[in-house]
Amino acid sequence: MRMPRPRKRNRDRKRLPAPAAPRWTDGLSDLSIAGDPLAFPHLARTDLPAHPTTLGGYARLVREIAADRARWEPLVRYDALTRWYARLETGPGYEVWLLSWLPGQSSGFHDHGRSSGVMTVVRGELSERSLTAGGEGSRALAAGGLRVLSPGYLHEMVNASLEPAVSVHLYTPGLVEMNQYPAAATAPERHRVH
Ligand SMILES: [Fe+2]
After folding, report:
1. Whether 178 contacts 113, CB under 8 Å
2. 0.85 exceeded by pTM
3. Residue 49 Cα, ligand 1 centroid: separation in angstroms?
4. Architecture of the domain delimited by 55-192
5. 111 C-alpha vs ligand 1 centroid, how far in Å?
6. pLDDT digit of tens for each residue in the chain (194 aa)?
7. In sequence order, which residues have a C-beta less than 8 Å from that of residue 137 and are 6 or more positions away?
């Protein structure tokens, strides 16, 4: 008569080796150096506004800044000798500029290199002349007016009114060059702006 073989209990089974810890080429990792960022609530905030990544998002941001006067009004300066501007904000892949225009001040004909832009007038009124394949155009931009500027768009902004004007401009990617043109567009003269 065959006797039943005793069943093998778990503890009798051969244990598999524990998986090896990941080996880093330099022996260090972000976690080993800084710890788990999710363990620190102030490093994992979720209440911060998301940065825009689309043209619609950039236009929305420009409108938000324009409506929040405390965000830009205390910073405005006027310069009788030259058009005044200052960088207001930066974000991943974009930057926002604040510009002031005394009566008669003008940008001259220019484009924005490979940057796209969104601009709005927040005080006073500006006049724009543009030059496209369809010919020359002109328009008045009152406070609240919004323009979207494509890469290579050629235009001139001027304060043709008798009152100071202020505008907010967003460029993406950040503005690294403006090609200045004589009044009638010919070969551009390249100027680094910062
Ligand atoms: Fe421009």
Report:
1. yes
2. no
3. 27
4. Sandwich (2.60)
5. 6
6. 565 665 555 555 566 666 565 555 555 666 666 666 566 666 655 666 689 999 999 999 999 999 999 999 999 999 999 899 999 999 999 999 999 999 999 999 999 999 999 999 999 999 999 998 888 999 999 999 999 999 999 999 999 999 999 999 999 999 888 899 887 544 444 444 43
7. 129, 130, 131
